[in-house]
Amino acid sequence: MTINADPQELAKFGELAHRWWDPESDFKPLHQINPLRLAWIQQLSPLAGKRVVDVGCGGGILSDSMARAGAQVLGIDLSTKPLRVAELHAMEAGTEGVEYREVAVEALAAEQPGSFDVVTCMEMLEHVPDPASVVRACATLVKPGGWVFLSTLNRNAKAFLLAIVGAEYVMNMLPKGTHEYARFLKPSELAQFCRDAGLDLQASRGLTYNPVTQRYSLGSDTDVNYLMACRRPG
Ligand code: SAH
What is the annotated signal peptide range for this record (predicted)? Predict the structure, then answer.
């Protein structure tokens, strides 16, 4: 089986991993958006007591917060260092109910189909060669009636200007080369991947950044960064 991953992408995250939990590091945007996405997930599917898999978990910002909300969380990724950092953080912070594993989402789907109440896959699809395959695997992992939450970057001129030129070159919020425009996904494309995987689209939200207040908010503007919530039919 060929692995659906880009070694350069995995190496990039590995090199930055030691600063994953520094809220002023390159991962500042993930720290800033985390409370917003966590609240949205909780609103649609309260996490306490749920079995969750977090796909492309990196250093575990979302995984850790979902475990703290009472879920039993498995974080998976294919970059070794971020996973080590995630484990170390859980130990240091005393987070219970979270574990991490280096495994491809497609392999986990073959191993544990229909096992999770909630599947999350955030800010990861724009880094993989075949995002549709990841969505299919997420759909296989979730139980009938369960929820799949996805987020990624939209592909249009505004997203190019804000997510790449603005964030990487003007504001230095992200290292140059963090994102590759061609891998961004329009909401219509992601919705099609979900439907093709047998998931029903339930809701979507946009994430916007205000450079003046330096704050993110969740709303209806999906032009740049957006989240989608789907359900597997019961
Ligand atoms: N989901 C986390 C981290 C996002 S950073 C969050 O939102 O907080 C993107 C992560 O995707 C990195 O940790 C990177 O290693 C991971 N990734 C990239 N390609 C991957 C692949 N093919 N399989 C699993 N994880 C991958």
Answer: none
